[in-house]
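Q: What structure does this chain adopt?
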Amino acid sequence: MRRSVYKKSEDSKLQVLDAAIATLAKRGIADTSVQDIANAAKLSKGSVHYHFASKDELYERVLERCCETIEKRVVEVFEQPGAPMERVRRAVLEMWSQRRDGLPELQVLQELFTLSRQNPAIRQALADALKRSRKQIVDIGFARLLELGLKPKVGVDVAARLLLAALDGLSLHHAVDPITTSEQTEMLRTLEAMMIAIFEL
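A:
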């Protein structure tokens, strides 16, 4: 019986998190209340507070769930069969596609970036999330380049930071000045060349 209650509790917690992501992506943090999230989850406001003691705690858990979803999609694409460079290329394309297509989880991360300017707890949670993202790039993508005998000219963490910064910066440009299909092809080719230039035989 206790296990069944725990399962229901975990299910409703995930229900709140998924509703929060969908609502925050659609309305933004400034226009979203706890009641809005409860309504989207089809639960009471008390149920939201049962799982999350404060809005900050809710946002931190939302951040974790967003990162898990984003990272899982990149890993799934990367783990498909292929030569190392092709797998790296697919992963970079997936990372860009998520930003280009406005994946809800990435929209929420952008909202949290704005909030982090005034909220130290969210800022630290975002910093930790970025470190995990860089570690994923190093442990998965760059590891394959090292297997090819390529050696980094700069620290691999710096290279990962450059890749994420380029993708995030391009997504901001795309939001106000859409990147065309031909520009996207050139852009991805340039990103690939940039990554290769960071490594040497």
